[in-house]
Design goal:
InterPro entries: UCP037205 (IPR017136). With about 40 residues, the chain is α+β, with helices and mostly antiparallel strands. Helix content is about 10%, strand content about 15%. The protein is globular and about 35 Å long.
Length: about 40
C-alpha cells in the first residue's frame, strides 16, 4: 500500500498551491492543471 506522501504532486495553474494525485484523475493525470473545479473556472 502506498503512502499519501508517495503520490505525485503538481502545482495548480491558478492558485499556485501544490495538490496530489487522486484516483479520479488516474486516466488523465497528464492533462490535469487545476486543483479544483473552482480554480478551473477562474
Amino acid at each position: 500500500m502506498k503512502s499519501k506522501y508517495d503520490l505525485p504532486v503538481k502545482t495548480c495553474a491558478t492558485c499556485g498551491l501544490p495538490f496530489r494525485w487522486r484516483k479520479k484523475w488516474a486516466r488523465c493525470w497528464a492533462e490535469v492543471k487545476y486543483c479544483s473545479e473552482r480554480c478551473r473556472r477562474q
